[in-house]
Amino acid sequence: MHCLSWNALCKAKDNGGLGFRDFKLFNSALVAKNWWRIKSNPESLLGKVYRAVYFPRGTIHVANRGYRPSYAWSSIIRSCEIFAKGGMWNIGNGKNVMAWSDKWVPGMDTLVYSMELAQQFGVSFVSDLMQLGLLTWNRELINFICCPPLARAILAIPLPLVPRDDVLYWPFSPDGHYSTKSGYQFLRQGAEAAVASSSQIPSLPRADWRKLWKADALPRCRETGWRACLDVLPVRASLHARGLAPDPTCPRCLAAPETAHHALLFCPTVRPIWFASSLGFRLAHECRVHEFVYDFMQVADESSLGVFLTLLYAIWSARNELCFKDKASTLEQILNHASSLSPLPPLEVPMVPQLHLPHSWSRPSPGTFKLNFDAAMAPNGDAGFGLVARNSRGEVLASACFPHGPVPSSLVAEGLSFRWAIGLAMELGFRCIVFETDCLLLFEAWKRRGGCSIVDSLILDCRRLSSGFDVFNFSFVRRTGNNVADALAKRSLLLGSLVWIEEIPQDLYGLVQSDVMACEAPVSS
Question: What does pTM read for this prediction?
Answer without folding.
Answer: 0.82
